[in-house]
Amino acid sequence: MANQAELSASSYNKNSRLTHFRRKVKRLERDILRMGALVENSFRLSHQALFARDLSAAEAIPLLDKQIDRFYRQIESECVMLMTLQAPAAMDSRLLGAFMQLVRDLERIGDYAQDISEIAVKLFPYPPHPCMAEIEEMSHQARAMLATSLVALADLDAEVGQRMKQLDSIVDDAYHNLYHILANQRDIKGVVEPLLLMALLIRHLERMADHATNIGQRVSYIVTGHR
Prior knowledge:
Elements: H1 2-51, H2 55-85, H3 90-123, H4 132-155, H5 158-183, H6 193-224
Helix pairs in contact: 1-2, 1-3, 1-4, 2-3, 3-6, 4-5, 4-6, 5-6
Domain PhoU: 32-119, 135-219
InterPro entries: PhoU, PhoU-like_sf, PhoU_dom
Subunit structure: Homodimer.
């Protein structure tokens, strides 16, 4: 009877720890999606600052970036704690590891959004360049990729994650085309600062699309276990 009671108690404790672990993971998932919503908003504001020349949008981003950074540090810390203290199974370790990489991608997108808002303010004094319409379309594509990757995360949709590379190729093509135009522009009148800023801008957008692709692929890895 004593052995049976001990086994029952051990089984209860194990199930209790597992339930506690699952609750922690669910909370992490919710926090990652909240962080993703902040990053989406930051990207939207940077787009608005750049193409609508909206100073108030640019000024709103630093506060958002601080919130994004807080989520990043908190989520990473909780993942490390769960991995070291809870001794999760292999599949759960894979999940936590993917979470840590995923929030790093989100944090980088947030940083690029802030960088773009700063570029937008520096471009305010100059007339819009003829390439701005194409850059705006590139920004739309990158934003759509971020939204798609976050939907894939919310739904744990591995197929959407795998399609992200196809979407990324569209942004890559736009980057190479725009870079070629800017690099080969002739008869430049006045200062070259706007061209330098736009070259940096399209590079930021291309990197944001890369990080969105990473998020989608990490979702696929969470679901399937395959890279």
